Amino acid sequence: MIENYLNKIIEGDALEVMKDIPGNSIDMIITSPPYNVGMPYGTDDRKNYLDYLDYMKGVLTECYRVLITGGRIAINLPGSILQSSSSKIAYLSLDYVLIMRGIGFLDREWISWLKMPKGEIPEKSTAWGSWQSPSCPYLRDASEFIIIMDKESHKKPGDKNKIDITVKEFLQFTSNVWYMPPEKNRWHPAPFPEELPYRLIKLYTYQGDIILDPFVGWGTTCVVAKRLKRNYIGIDNNPEYCRMATIKIANETSLFEKD
Ligand SMILES: C[S@@+](CC[C@H](N)C(=O)[O-])C[C@H]1O[C@@H](n2cnc3c(N)ncnc32)[C@H](O)[C@@H]1O
Asked: Is the CB of 188 under 6 A from ligand 1?
């Protein structure tokens, strides 16, 4: 029963945990997966690239199974990225889209997330590769993508009395370029800012919907979901991140509680 999973942070491997979640039960998945670039998450983030994609295909297949008809998935990914395991440059977003189409997801939107206004250079970042030489320069990461895909239908069922997006928000969030500064608090090595799940939840879900993040980190998606009167499920295989996520959520007052 999906009720057994609601409003919990579950410690475990995303693929294994998701296998037990009932099918056709989730309204929206919002996530930023590991990019396989050697981040210090405490597990192997430097797999062979094809093995990495194979694992993600398993997780994405589970994502498809658990979504309701009209349910959405939003994945935050970089464009091109240097895979530390092989020095292979990969168009990560493109590889994910091809896998997801193969699973059956329908194309919906491709949002550009600009981290710096007016193309400013990101602080404290370095472009590896050849220095001041056309030999092999790499570019700095000032933007990422948020790829949205649907299951079976582009229309999502819901109660119109449970819509909470304002006119101003709707006008702003329906642009396919979002400027949002990166999260400054770096207790977790790679969090996204609260603004990212906030916009997605407001634009694509109704109050009371169920939001799942299979790679929840320190809980950003779930904190915002609770704040916005949505149910949440978060999964992460790092016990410390799960502990921190649970504390953050406990400190978050839901709008339900404010009513
Ligand atoms: C990019 S971070 C997500 C950060 C999150 N959006 C936030 O704001 O905190 C990816 C997360 O995936 C987790 N992770 C990596 N491999 C995993 C796996 N096999 N199963 C579950 N979680 C995993 C890492 O511990 C990390 O917290």
From this structure: yes
Whole-Å CA distances, 116 to 22, 87, 113, 197, 250: 40, 27, 9, 18, 32
| Binding site membership of 80 for ligand 1 (Cβ less than 6 Å) | no
Region 52-68: what's the mean pLDDT?
Answer: 98
pLDDT of residue 38: 87
Asked whether 41 lines ligand 1 (CB < 6 A), one says yes
Map out the domains of the chain as residue ranges: 2-122+137-258
From ligand 1's centre to the CA of 47, what distance in Å?
A: 15
What value does the CA radius of gyration of the chain take, rounded to a whole number of Å?
A: 18
Q: Is 13 in the pocket of ligand 1 (CB under 6 A)?
A: yes
Tell how strand 106-114 and strand 143-150 pair up: antiparallel
Residues 154, 175, 75: CA angle, nearest 5 degrees? 55
Report the C-alpha gap between 212 and 137 in whole angstroms: 38
Ligand 1 atom having least distance to the Cα of 33: 10
Distance in Å, CA 216 to ligand 1 centroid: 6
Q: What is the pLDDT of residue 87?
A: 67
Q: What is the mean pLDDT of residues 124-134?
A: 73
DSSP H or E run through 18: helix 14-19
Displacement of CA 16 from its chain's centroid (Å): 18
2-122+137-258 under CATH 3.40.50.150, yes or no? yes
Distance 245 CA to ligand 1 centre (A): 12
Beta carbons within 10 angstroms of residue 199's beta carbon: 22
Tokens coding 77: 């990914």
Ligand 1 pocket test, candidate residues 192, 236, 242, 246, most atoms within 8 A of CB:
236
- List the end-to-end C-alpha distance of the chain, in Å, as a whole number: 27
